[in-house]
Amino acid sequence: MLSSNAWLRDWRILKRFVVRKLGIIPTKRESLLDLYRLTQWNHKYDVDNLKRAMHFIREFEHKVVACRCADDLLARAAS
Questions:
Q1: 27 — alpha (psi -120 to 50), left (phi > 0) or beta?
Q2: Helical H runs in 22-69?
Q3: Which among 65, 10, 77, 70 has a CA at the least distance from the CA of 40?
Q4: 62, 74, 75, 77: which has the fewest Cβ within 10 Å?
Q5: How many CB atoms are closer than 10 A to CB 1?
């Protein structure tokens, strides 16, 4: 399970939106309203979706590895 910071996800969402708007990456049409909705969903993710996902996998909790960044994952793989 990878759990990144909500503000970092916001930055990535905004960066992707700008790149798409500049036409660097061809993609579907997005509006500022779409960007707003996605950032709102992003901030509810940890409270709502992640909590529900953890509920589904609770019987496998002993197998779950929680990582906040790629370095955490690499450190786990090396040990």
A1: beta
A2: 32-45, 49-56
A3: 10
A4: 62
A5: 10
Q: Can you read off the two tokens belonging to residue 18?
A: 């700008």
The C-alpha atoms of residue 49 and residue 56 are separated, in whole angstroms, by 11
CA distances from 72 to 1, 36, 60 (A): 11, 30, 20
50: Cα separation from own chain's centroid = 10
pLDDT digits (tens, 9 = 90+) for 1-47: 567 788 999 999 999 999 888 888 777 788 999 999 999 999 888 88
**Stated pTM of the model:** 0.65
Tokens 């309203």: give the residue: 33
- The confidence score (pLDDT) of residue 47 equals 81
